[in-house]
Amino acid sequence: MIFVELFWAFLKIGIFTFGGGAAAVALIQNEVVSHQHWLTQQEFTDILAVSQMTPGPVGINTATYAGYTALFNAGYSQWMAVLGAVVASLSVIILPVALMMVVVRFVQRYRSNKYIDAVMRMLRMVVVGIIAAAALQLVTEDSFGHAGWNAHFVISILLFLSVFWLSIKKKNPVVLMLAAGAIGIAVYTLIG
Amino acid sequence: MIKYCDLFWSFFKIGTFTIGGGYAMIPLMERELVDRHQWMSREEFLDQVALSQSLPGILAVNMASGVGFRLRGRRGALAAIVGNIVMPIIFILILAMVYRLFKDNVYVERFFMGVRPAAVALIAAPVFTLAKSAGINWQTCWIPIVSSLLIWMMSVNPIFVILAAVAMGVVCKKMGWTKKGGAEA
Q1: Which of the pair, B103 or A147, is modelled with greater confidence?
Q2: Is B113 on the interface with A (CB under 8 A)?
Q3: Interface membership of A94 toward B (CB under 8 Å)
Q4: Which of A52, A58, A62 is nearest to A21 (CA)?
Q5: Are B168 and A118 in contact (CB under 8 A)?
């Protein structure tokens, strides 16, 4: 029963997400692409691109779109896929929301203690590794072209490096994505 | 008394018009909740930001649920969360349907050929920005490197890496190995 599997997968993703959108994306990719094979790496990269260009939390956007595509790929109708999207986005938030309410009720003022500090410090370091692994898994021939001296690969590497650099320089991600898409249309149309 | 619909509307505006995820939303939430409506003090807000980052979950949703719950209890949390994510979900569903119709269009395909490497770059960039704020140095850089190799090369589930990190954090504290990252609390 794919709805139950989807619910369980995103429940786990939600409760193990520490550290912002990229961390959520890394866990979603691991679950839906590497473990469950609900969608291909290529499909996931496209979903990721759309999720970064549209408003809203990137983790929610990715969960919604991944849930939709998972159901669609499993042969369900468009409206069942919409239901899958809703199940995915709700199950990713349900446990953290419940936990937040419990904590806010009992902890009137947030005071971290030595153990929380030590655990958070360790978590921040491994999350860097988790995101790095996700980024490495995203570098595929489908997205970058066949490695070598050909137009698709060279342009992809140039786009990757420029967006990477500009993103570190805190440039607006949507502008970067739209520019990369516009360059894609222009360059690949020119060279046929 | 703060009305549910006001709470909904505040988070609705932020969720619907902010591109770039949770971190981009926090300053807008501060302006809306602290400066404009004065629903909470700045200290209370910053407290909630710290809590939202320490608890698991999507940052923006953690903010919505924490703020909503503080102000108006469970229904307040619901109003804030729904406000925050309803339009993003609808946008994505519309785009998902439209993309199915046009994905074989040659210009759409070229657009995505340009956008794919950029999407990967936006995931790779936080590796470096977060590494800096995580206080990773020569003594601790093995931790993220080993984590990523375990996941990338040996297909270890990241969930186990996170559980191991929690255990290691507790053990390090118990043993008194607290030099990590320099700044000691």
Answers
A1: A147
A2: yes
A3: no
A4: A58
A5: no
